[in-house]
Amino acid sequence: MRNFKIYLVVFVCLFGSKMRAQESFEGKAKDIASRIETIVKEEKNELKVEVEAVNEQLAQGKITNEEADEKKKALAEARAKTIEEKVAKLEEELHVLVQDKVDGKIKVVDTSKTITIHFSKDYFSHHDKCSNGEKRTTSQFVFALGANNLVTDRQVANSDFKYWKSHFYEWGLTYNTRILKEDNLLHFKYGMSLMYNNLRATDDRYFVKNGAQTDLVTSSVHLDESRFRNVYIMVPLHLEFDFTKKEIRDDANYFRTHKSMRVGLGGYAGFRVKSKQILCYDDAVGNDVEQKTEGNYNVNDFNYGLSTYVGYKATSIYLKYDLQPLFENNAVDQNNISLGLRFDFN
Questions:
Q1: What are the tens digits of pLDDT across the range 187-209?
Q2: For the chain, what percentages of helix, strand and coil (3-state, to nearest 5) are there?
Q3: For residues 274 and 23, what is the distance between their CA atoms, to the nearest angstrom?
Q4: Whether the model pTM is above 0.85
């Protein structure tokens, strides 16, 4: 949208002598400036009402985001054109006033002053964004990765799995809804994620299904790779505390997210998609062998747990713990635990 600028500059000089006049040049100039400000304010308020009506239609699903943007743009252009037309009349009035001053028809009775008025169409095209900031519900692409292991007898120490080579990955889509209309602190974060939990056993060991039990046994050959992977579809739910401060512009609150410290508390629930074990080793004649075996391995099909994250802007430290044991009927419960980095891209 093209910009337009209206500058009204009135420069009044006092030459010393006191003149008599019912209405001074400066007074008339101030009156014109005041009327221009009133026009801008009234049109701006009308635009607010119209934009809110469009937002209401969008919230009710009557129009799409693209249609809403087009309507707002058209409304902004119409209001800017109205201002331009109304101010043009006042410009002409000012021109006559200045000409009368030059012709000596209006006398000066006050000290030197300069009055400047400046506004732009850009204000109106971006008004909805400035007064509201982000939408109350935003979406994020989430990616997380880090170390993964099992808690056995309430501890991770002396684990049967490698600490730095047992990894987890998570990616998905979340929605973030501001709970309070006029406060940015509390948010409800929800979505869907695909989680990969990998365990790499130590000392050439691997999992074997033995009836209802799943045992970790030692291989008869050296294993270059022993990886046990479980894949889940999860629904994460968090109460998020976002400490991004709101801004106040034109007496309206302006909200943004993921611009400061954030803390999330919550959990997740979902189901297992598949379990796979990957073994790599050299056979008797020196050939490289990669063995992939899919099965349920007595892993619980349903899973749920607790999770939390603390971070700044898009990056957080992320901790999650499965309340459901990994295996259904093993004599000793083992629960998955993960610690790593989480990225929420707005």
A1: 999 999 999 999 999 999 999 99
A2: 25, 45, 30
A3: 87
A4: no
